[in-house]
Amino acid sequence: MEEKKLDINSIIGFVLIFGILIYMFWQNKPTPEELEAQEKAKQEQVAAEAKAKEAKQTLVTTAEDYAVGTALDSLQKVAAQNKLGAFAYSATRVSKKETVVETDVFALKFNSKGGYLSEVKLKQFVDYKEKPIYIVKNQNADFNINFGTTDSRIFNTRDLYFEPKVSKNGKNTVVSMKLKVSETKFLEYRYELKPADYMIGFSVKSQGLQDVINSSADINLDWKLKGYRHAKSISYENRYTDIHYEHDEGHADYTGARDADDELEDVTWIGYKQHFFSSVLLTDTPFKKARITAESLVENEEIDTVYTKLFATKLPLELRGGELSESMDWYIGPNDFKVLNAYDKNLDEIVPFGWGIFGIINRYVFMPLFGFLGGFLPYGIAIVVMTILVKILLSFVQYKQFLSQAKMKVLKPELDAIREKHKDNKMKAQQETMALQTKAGASPLSGCLPALIQLPVFYALFQFFPSAFDLRQKSFLWAEDLSSYDTILELPFHIPFYGSHVSLFPILASIAIFFYMRLTTGQNVQAQPQQEGMPDMAKMMKYMMFFSPIMMLFFFNNYASGLSLYYFISNTISIGIILVIKNFILDEDKIHAQIQENKKKPKKESKFQAKMKQMMEQAEQQKQMQQKRKK
After folding, report:
1. Number of C-alpha atoms within 13 angstroms, CB side, residue 6?
2. What are the tens digits of pLDDT across the range 142-152?
């Protein structure tokens, strides 16, 4: 009975409290005047917020703010019109930011903002870390057209949104990127991709923009690229990274490894060349002017740099009938001579085979020969075989060179006797020395000329191996990549001009060069008389015998192992040829007998020899007159 009474009291208490709360709310309700004031304040706050939002949009809106692919409200339309003028229409036409397209050789991405290639992957190649080769990625490139409009605005296409469309033209894939003023008025970038082809058809054309683009304002195309590092040695790769171009009616040239800032005229193509890959912009109608710049981004080999060089090109564009109309092509691919040469656009000049006679030897001798051998032999073996063939062809030159040295060695006792006889008259000694050499048919020049004949071949091969794309990532023995240095030991420190690794092929080549020079220069110097007023050649050649191998060791430690392999094989074969000539072909007794016979025969002096003799006689007369004056 007691519990029931408590429950009734609790209920009565809750009711009283609820009633008191209701009474308090009723007493404190706002008057009609207060309600009106609150509603007015609320309306003013909403209006202020809307005004602030509109002001903010008008001041800072970009095309990206409207990249939603949906209809804009009235405030957004006003802001877009204020900011973008005629191109406000383009802000509503974007459905996605990137368009992905693949071919047999490319994996490409086209960015709607700017309409250009935002990613270029070469599907058939990898870098030294076995990672895919990207020419464009992570905003390392920029392609922009800067122009003015008739309503006094300045635009950059990199900041505006293009509408993408992918279609087919037969087997080709066409990517159209349109910056629209309306459905029938636009600026279009058109890319046409062929199957298994590194050449991309590219054009920049406008339609119906005569009243939009200001014809009196400058229109400039800006193209920039930071070249990605792809090779093990960045300093070596950077040495072969530069800008190549064709201008002045087919004249190909290049900037070289230096930083560059050049003005060009009548340009038909510009190529950003990295060691083994290039991006080349070609045009059907030459650009009247172009400014190209190149800046090295590599400090030294010790810093793990991402990029090699920063390239930039500025091309003034001209309106034709009030419209832009530029038909171009874009080559993005390997610096493979066979691939580049097939386009018949002089692009093979990108491969640095050398100028003049050196380039001719590489193009028409070594390139076909190496291509033939590489067709059925491993590339390392192909280098060895080609080296053997070259040395066999030049063996007659070495024979002539060694024969001249042997003659000078046989004549040495007589030459020493002449120098002793006329030790007080150096000029007379020189005259008799020349006379003896002429009669014997053993001129020192006959030993130099064969060496000079070998120089074009030597330099041509020096250019050929670092430029041979076929050697890239081809292994041989301990060398993992014949286009880069081989490594047998990683050093825990860095040696200036040498590096932080030890390459074996340069060591072998240096040893071979030392023994080759010891066999050739040593004997030649001993046979040569000391000339009046001339440095001691014996000492100089002795120094060179040690200096050349050391220079080879340091210089080639970061060079392509294929080149060091060639020098090792070449000098080893030369040593063998010299030993065979010396021990089995040349007979010093027979040479001596032949010289004696030659001395008996009257020999007519050549014009050069007569002139030299006359000059020496005049010099001797002047010397005697000076001595008389002193007395």
Report:
1. 3
2. 999 999 988 88
Q: Are 97 and 111 in contact (CB under 8 A)?
A: yes
Percent of the chain at pLDDT exceeding 70: 67
Three-state DSSP at 109 gives strand
* Predicted confidence (pLDDT) at residue 267 exceeds the cutoff of 90: yes
Cβ neighbours of residue 574 closer than 8 Å, sequence gap 6 or more: 391, 398, 516
Q: Which residues pair with 145 in a beta bridge?
A: 221
CA distance 560 to 564: 7
Look at residue 2 and tell me whether its pLDDT is greater than 50: no
Torsion, Cα of 607, 611, 612, 616 (10° steps): 150
With both helix axes pointing from N to C terminus, report the angle between 445-467 and 395-421 in degrees, rounded to the nearest 10: 140
Alpha-carbon distance of 156 to 143, in angstroms, equals 10
CA–CA dist 352, 275 (Å, integer): 10
Q: Which residue has the tokens 């002096």?
A: 605
For the CA atoms of the chain, what is the radius of gyration? 40
Number of residues in the chain:
631
- pTM of structure: 0.75
Name the residue among 626, 445, 423, 374 with its Cα closest to residue 532: 423
Token pair of 402, please? 């060694």
422 contact partners, CB below 8 Å, separation of at least 6: 428, 429, 432
pLDDT (tens digit per residue) in 101-145: 999 999 999 999 899 999 999 999 999 889 999 999 988 999 999
Q: What is the identity of the amino acid at 148?
A: G
Name which of 304, 162, 169 is nearest 233 in CA terms: 304
- Name the residue with tokens 């076909």: 368
Q: What pLDDT, in 10s, does the model give residues 432-443?
A: 666 666 666 566
Question: How far is 428 from 631, CA to CA, in rounded Å?
Answer: 21
Cβ atoms of residues 482 and 562 within 8 Å: yes
Q: Are 100 and 120 in contact (CB under 8 A)?
A: no
Structural tokens at position 80: 């877009």
Nearest to residue 65, comparing CAs of 84, 86, 52? Answer: 84
**298-333 per-position pLDDT tens digit:** 877 666 688 999 999 999 999 988 899 999 999 999
